[in-house]
Specification:
Layout (H helix, E strand, L loop, with lengths): L1 E2 L2 E5 L3 H12 L3 E5 L11 E4 L1 H9 L3 H7 L5 E6 L4 E6 H8 L4 E4 H14 L4 E2 L6 H10 L2 E4 L7 H6 L7 E13 L8 E7 L2 E7 L4 E9 L8 H11 L5 H8 L7 E7 L7 E2 L2 E3 L2 H4 L8 H19 L3 E2 L2 H38 L14 H8 L4
Parallel strand pairs: 2-3, 2-9, 3-8, 5-11, 9-16
Antiparallel strand pairs: 1-17, 4-7, 5-6, 10-13, 10-14, 11-12, 12-13, 15-16
Length: 381
């Protein structure tokens, strides 16, 4: 009888660690490989909308996440002069969904996930840079190889698409950071300030702590010093409203990061034989979708459920095994591709609205109801 419980996961991001936790709890033997020397916290912060919190509840991590995160009441949109243009009641979305929306620093989210994995006895194998040949070797030793190795340079995706799927630069950058303000300075609201081809978003966590993103339309220039980009940010937003000035006056310099924002086009398949990609490696959305980490968590939860229901841990016939796995992964793709593609499209549409050169940024928040958001985010859960 062939043992069928070994899973290799390449990439220790949100999707990779979440899948490792869920699969280990179901009895699979998981090996998790990460190219870096530690867990990355790139991204400053994450908004975990109700669909993400649903998954984290299934992982028994909801309370810990809430303990370190914040629960915003509203999402508001302003122009660059501070005039409010729209408002969404997040509490209404939460009530309809049955779960909270939680804002949290990415480093805190990753630490919670890493501790949960460590408690299960699974150690992340760091400094493991994979090649296509390494993935081929893993295919022979593991029943399933899952690539969760990111949007930009996914080696596992490259094994599925040898001609290489090229991430698409969407014409704007984000400079992200973390600021600690005095308690009471921030409202309990996610605030989005917009000007022509410019945007500044502020997301509160708790006790004056917030993360933020300054974005504008620009050509990609990787040779330009980071300090020049940071100086440009200050010049661009120097006359923007007081909340923007507050976070720019007191950010943690070590938290700053400049990101040339890319996504990928929807892919016609996510697996071949026993190799699969999920998360950003499979369907990286723009940050304007607000759903990157949320969809990574959904992927992990749905895949674990498909495996536990339809992919037995032990089978006698290797051909039967291959057939079962192919069906599981095909069904997983068919379940996920509609939602992830819609989220990719929504992110691109919003990015075009913000950074497409319009003199009068449209109010997007006022055009979306709590019912629409709840129905969209909770679909399939």
């Amino acid at each position: 009888m062939k043992n069928n419980n070994r899973i290799a996961i390449v990439g220790a991001g949100v999707a990779g660690i979440a899948l490792a936790i869920l699969a280990t709890k179901q009895g699979y033997q998981v090996s998790l490989y990460e190219r870096n020397s530690n867990i990355s916290s790139i991204g400053a912060g994450v908004t975990l909308w109700p669909n993400a919190m649903f998954v984290l509840q299934q992982m028994a991590l909801e309370d810990e996440i809430k303990g370190l995160g914040g629960v915003p009441s509203f999402m508001r949109q302003f122009d660059k002069f501070g005039t409010q243009q729209g408002k969404l009641n997040i509490e209404d979305v939460n009530a309809l969904s049955g779960f909270a929306s939680v804002t949290i620093l990415r480093r805190d989210l990753m630490n919670i996930l890493a501790r949960a994995l460590d408690d299960l006895g699974v150690k992340i194998q760091f400094n493991c840079s994979m090649t296509v040949e390494d993935i081929d070797t893993l295919k022979q030793s593991f029943s399933l190889v899952v690539g969760t190795d990111g949007r930009m340079n996914s080696v596992v995706r490259h094994t599925l698409y040898p001609q290489e799927v090229k991430p698409c630069y969407q014409g704007f950058i984000n400079i992200i950071g973390i600021s600690q303000l005095e308690e009471g300075v921030l409202d309990n609201a996610i605030d989005d300030f917009r000007g022509p081809s410019e945007r500044f978003g502020i997301v509160p966590v708790k006790a004056g702590l917030c993360y933020w993103a300054a974005g504008w339309s620009t050509q990609m220039d990787k040779l330009r010093p980071l300090s020049a980009w940071f100086d440009e940010m200050h010049q661009r937003f120097i006359n923007w409203p007081v909340p923007v000035q507050n976070v720019l006056e007191c950010y943690d310099k070590s938290s700053l990061n400049r990101i040339f924002v890319h996504d990928i086009n929807p892919l016609p398949y996510w697996h071949k034989d026993n190799v699969l990609i999920i998360g950003d490696a499979a369907h990286a959305p723009l940050p304007t979708s607000g759903q990157g980490a949320c969809q990574a968590l959904e992927d992990a939860w749905h895949l674990a459920r498909h495996l536990s229901r339809h992919f037995p841990l032990n089978v006698e016939n290797k051909y039967e095994l291959a057939h079962d796995l192919d069906k599981v992964l095909t069904d997983f793709y068919q379940q996920r591709i509609v939602k992830t593609s819609a989220i990719q499209a929504a992110g691109r549409t919003l990015a075009q609205t913000i950074f497409g050169g319009s003199d009068e940024p449209k109010s997007v928040v006022s055009g979306i109801s709590a019912e629409q958001l709840s129905e969209f985010w909770m679909k399939g859960l």
